[in-house]
Amino acid sequence: MKKLATLITLALTTSLSSTHLLAAEKLRVYAASSMTNAVNLLVDEFEKDHSVDVIPVYASTSSLVRQIERGASADIFISANEKWMTYLVDRKYVSSDNVTNLCENELVLISPKGIPVSLDISQGDQWTKLLTNERLAVGNTMSVPAGIYAKEALEALGVWDDVSERLAPSNNVRMALALVERNEAKLGIVYKTDALLSKEVSLVETFPADLHTPIRYPVAKLSDKVVAEQFYTFLKSEKAKDTLNSFGFEVR
């Protein structure tokens, strides 16, 4: 009888757990690929205190914006670029009242680990010499925020014409990082947070902030779900700020 009672209890517990999982509300968080590791941890922290199944979706900001335009059911959107968020606000996909700046980042030049690089980033001839038969990994300079910032910085330095023919553009910043990690590109321009996560690259130089548009990550609440408001509020909490800071993001 005891064995039977135990089996019944286990069955009921399993059934209740399954019912809970099925009943848990879903929250879809669309975030720029450079936020992957930080958002994964933020999601874990949020789920501990809320009965919700958070589904993160990562891609380049431009790709996520296109998905939202086509009707993707995003509840929260974290952009790596203020202009793309403004684009959505201007087209009424999000209210400006539901947008706030989450954090900031820096732009850095990297090289594969163990391959020493000496470069004065303001000298075009040095870029040309280093990139002879080599490539500079960047995000797409027309659409990917990291690539847009990279082009701005290189133009401000006066070296864009020296490097523009040696680019290895990618669909997001994590792909640019991977090219350098695999030694398929001698240099790469990524966010500081990406460089800090990788054991396969070395930081060559940090681009001065005045060379490009400020790298700010605005976050928007796109739905009226209660849990979306809760997650949006959570992202502004001290706990969330500590998490973002731990990954190298700057929270002001």
Automatic annotation (TrEMBL):
<dbReference type="GO" id="GO:0030973">
    <property type="term" value="F:molybdate ion binding"/>
</dbReference>
<feature type="binding site">
    <location>
        <position position="61"/>
    </location>
    <ligand>
        <name>molybdate</name>
    </ligand>
</feature>
<feature type="binding site">
    <location>
        <position position="34"/>
    </location>
    <ligand>
        <name>molybdate</name>
    </ligand>
</feature>
<keyword id="KW-0479">Metal-binding</keyword>
<dbReference type="InterPro" id="IPR050682">
    <property type="entry name" value="ModA/WtpA"/>
</dbReference>
<dbReference type="Pfam" id="PF13531">
    <property type="entry name" value="SBP_bac_11"/>
</dbReference>
<protein>
    <recommendedName>
        <fullName>Molybdate-binding protein ModA</fullName>
    </recommendedName>
</protein>
<dbReference type="GO" id="GO:1901359">
    <property type="term" value="F:tungstate binding"/>
</dbReference>
<keyword id="KW-0813">Transport</keyword>
<feature type="binding site">
    <location>
        <position position="146"/>
    </location>
    <ligand>
        <name>molybdate</name>
    </ligand>
</feature>
<dbReference type="GO" id="GO:0030288">
    <property type="term" value="C:outer membrane-bounded periplasmic space"/>
</dbReference>
<keyword id="KW-0500">Molybdenum</keyword>
<dbReference type="GO" id="GO:0046872">
    <property type="term" value="F:metal ion binding"/>
</dbReference>
<keyword id="KW-0732">Signal</keyword>
<feature type="binding site">
    <location>
        <position position="191"/>
    </location>
    <ligand>
        <name>molybdate</name>
    </ligand>
</feature>
<feature type="signal peptide">
    <location>
        <begin position="1"/>
        <end position="23"/>
    </location>
</feature>
<dbReference type="GO" id="GO:0015689">
    <property type="term" value="P:molybdate ion transport"/>
</dbReference>
<comment type="function">
    <text>Involved in the transport of molybdenum into the cell. Part of the binding-protein-dependent transport system ModABCD.</text>
</comment>
<feature type="binding site">
    <location>
        <position position="173"/>
    </location>
    <ligand>
        <name>molybdate</name>
    </ligand>
</feature>
<comment type="subunit">
    <text>The complex is composed of two ATP-binding proteins (ModC), two transmembrane proteins (ModB) and a solute-binding protein (ModA).</text>
</comment>
<dbReference type="GO" id="GO:0005886">
    <property type="term" value="C:plasma membrane"/>
</dbReference>
<keyword id="KW-0826">Tungsten</keyword>
<keyword id="KW-1003">Cell membrane</keyword>
<dbReference type="InterPro" id="IPR005950">
    <property type="entry name" value="ModA"/>
</dbReference>
<keyword id="KW-0472">Membrane</keyword>
<comment type="similarity">
    <text>Belongs to the bacterial solute-binding protein ModA family.</text>
</comment>
